[in-house]
Structures are given as C-alpha cells and as structure tokens.
Amino acid sequence: MATLVHVETGALIRSWPERFELAGASEPGTVLTAPGPHRRSRRMMIYKILRADEWEALRDRGEIPGPPVDVRDGFVHFSTGTQLRETARRHFAGESGLELLACDSDAMGADLRWEPSRRGDLFPHLYRALRRTDVVWHRPLPADGSDLEPDLPA
Fold this sequence. Notes:
By secondary structure, the chain is of the alpha+beta class.
C-alpha cells in the first residue's frame, strides 16, 4: 500500500493498493507527502451544504452521520471553496432552506481524507459523524447560489 499524507498534520490523503504504480513509491508501505494545495501555513476551510432539516438535526443533536447520500457512501462529502459552486449547482439547484457550513479541515485530523471525485479533483471526505463543533461558521444559502462568492477561501 502506498500512502499520501498531509505534510503538516500527517492526515491520510489517499492510499493506493500495491498494484498501482505511484511515482516515488517503489516499495510497499511507502509514505509520500503531498506538496502544493495540501501544504499550507493557514487553516483551510472546507464547505458543506445542508438542507434545513439536516442543519436543525446537527444543531439539536450535536452530530449527524450526514445527509442520506453521505450515509450511503460511508463518509461526509465536503467541497473546497473552488469546488463549492459546482457542488451547489449539481446537487442543490433550485432548493430553498439551505445552510452553508464552513469547517476547519485541519481540526478534523486523520478522519478527513482527500480522495478523487469529479474530473479527478481531490475532494475532502470525512470518515466520521459531522459534529456541531466542526463548524467554524454557517449562513443561509439562497436557492440560486448567488451568495457563493467565487473567492471563498479554498
């Protein structure tokens, strides 16, 4: 197994079975560090859109396993600032009563993994329940997504 980990936190970003070749991973168990967007000196915000009932459940219970799609997939889906507009368009178009949550990716530690999804982009996936304490800030999100600034912190 070759493993890609976050340079600063040591959090698992991605693992590959030995049958895949990965530049620099010449032996099983090789651990690589991720340069570029995974190496940062400031906290990185990741984003989650919840429907009103999901947000209410998180507020009231303190944690939730995520919406049904997250429960089905076995992890809580997040987006970076640059991925958020497309996520909103694809999965929440025309819906009202949405809440945008911002979470500190570093605070989630090893429970957060960066895995390929749309077009091979790495998306943050949380492999535990989403906790109210994970939320740094939140705000209502208009159905048309007009409140998604193109420069949300990635």
